[in-house]
Write a structure and sequence with these properties.
The structure holds 2 protein chains of 2 kinds. Chain A is mostly helical. Chain A is built from 4 helices and 1 strand; from the N terminus they run E-H-H-H-H. In chain B, the strands form 2 sheets. In chain B, strands 1, 2, 3, 4 and 5 form a 5-stranded antiparallel sheet that branches. Chain B has a 4-stranded antiparallel sheet with strand order 7-8-6-9, covered by helices on one side. Chains A and B meet through strand 1, helix 1, helix 2, helix 3 and helix 4 of A and strand 1, helix 2, helix 3, strand 4 and strand 5 of B.
């Protein structure tokens, strides 16, 4: 159901008014990738699941992203078929040194997390 | 019989079991989306191929921005659809379980706490406010200085003007934040975003998140427009993004959960 309701904030940047990068319409609004990443990877409820994978901290990720993301638009364009032509689908392994460094960093973070979870509170 | 897992359960968020949901047709990687009930809470999840989205994939792609950006965008797309109709507790990535039984166990154990948080955030959504310094139009070039003393006088006046303008901007930004925070249930200031990721070259003066009642959105937007009108003459533009699930206002992590009871 597509419907641009009257209360949809309008994009009004040029005149000095606020820019609303979202709408109240029924269509998903395009959202800033930086907004998505800082939330999805750094905020929200941390699941205490049976599979624990820790990411690098968001600051380090941001630096990597600065180096590697060609453009915000390109990432958006990837859409849901991004995984079809992604490197991992073709079985490309990361280089050894980088992987070791990454794993040791992940282990450190896991250890840090483990200390916080000493008791499960139940 | 011990076999390698072929699928993994990816959880997007937690809702009340009695919530009315309008599930998007597809989730990450085009997978279907389902709901697992463990009253009083339920989880919205997808079953994904382990070889593409399992723990090994996450480790493999832990610093692969394109992969992370794509998964994060899909995760948020699902949550973005859910928040139109109900309150959702967003899960931070990676949010993975071996199977539905393990996810159900998580919901069973943490259900009371998750439900309490859902209740406390009832009918509230998160909005993001970004202030950028876009600068002012170039000043008219005045007549060239006639003497050395005149030149130095102008230099020192220009410096004083710049310092005053900067102090003025800081005050304006603080006032704008305070005004919006007044209309929000809670507010937080986050680190300014990296321009490479935000796609904006102008300096970011404020990156804040606001927890706003659905009923007060109009008031909030009006305040944003008023703030923008005050800031524009000083070379500052306002950008609002949202609505978001309350990512910035659910401080439930391993430590928090362990600390309860």
């Amino acid at each position: 159901m597509t419907q641009n309701t009257d209360n949809a904030p309008q994009v009004r940047g040029a005149s000095g008014g606020p820019v609303f990068a979202a709408t109240r319409s029924r269509e998903p609004a395009p959202q800033n990738l930086a907004d998505v990443l800082e939330r999805v990877l750094d905020k929200g409820i941390v699941v205490v699941g049976d599979i624990q994978v820790r990411l690098l901290d968001i600051e380090l990720l941001t630096i990597k992203i600065r180096l590697m993301v060609a453009s915000v638009d390109r990432a958006r364009e990837m859409g849901i078929s991004w995984w079809e032509n992604d490197a991992f689908a073709t079985g490309v392994e990361p280089s050894g040194g980088q992987q070791d460094e990454l794993e040791s960093r992940v282990r450190q973070l896991e250890q840090k997390l483990g200390e916080g979870e000493g008791q499960d509170g139940r | 019989m011990d076999v390698e897992p072929v699928t993994v359960v990816h959880a997007y968020g937690v809702v009340r079991t009695d919530a009315v949901l309008d599930l998007p047709p597809t989730g990450i990687g085009g997978a279907g989306i389902a709901v697992l009930d463990a009253p009083p809470v339920s989880a919205v999840f997808s079953i994904l191929p382990d070889r593409w989205f399992g723990a090994d994939s996450w480790r493999h792609h832990a610093e692969d921005p394109e992969w992370l950006a794509a998964v994060a965008t899909e995760h948020q797309r699902v949550l973005g659809a859910l928040i139109r109709d109900t309150d959702v507790l967003p899960l931070r990535l990676p949010a993975m379980y071996r199977d539905e039984l393990h996810l159900r166990e998580y919901l069973r154990v943490e259900g009371p706490l998750l439900h309490a948080v859902l209740e406390s955030l009832r009918d509230h959504l998160e909005w993001s406010v970004h202030l950028y310094f876009v600068g002012l139009p170039e000043e008219h070039t005045r007549a060239r200085p006639t003497t050395g003393a005149d030149y130095l006088r102008r230099k020192s006046r220009a410096l004083a003007d710049r310092q005053e303008a900067q102090a003025n901007r800081e005050r304006l930004v603080q006032n704008a934040y305070a005004t919006l925070a007044d209309l929000s249930r809670q507010s937080v200031v986050n680190r300014p975003q990296d321009s490479a990721v935000s796609g904006r070259n102008e300096p970011m003066l404020l990156n804040s998140a606001h927890l706003v009642s659905r009923r007060h959105e109009r008031l909030f937007f009006t305040a944003v427009e008023e703030a923008a009108a005050k800031l524009a003459p000083n070379g500052i533009t306002v950008e609002v993004t949202g609505p978001w699930p309350p990512y910035n206002f659910v401080e439930l992590g391993a430590e928090t959960l362990a600390g309860q009871q």
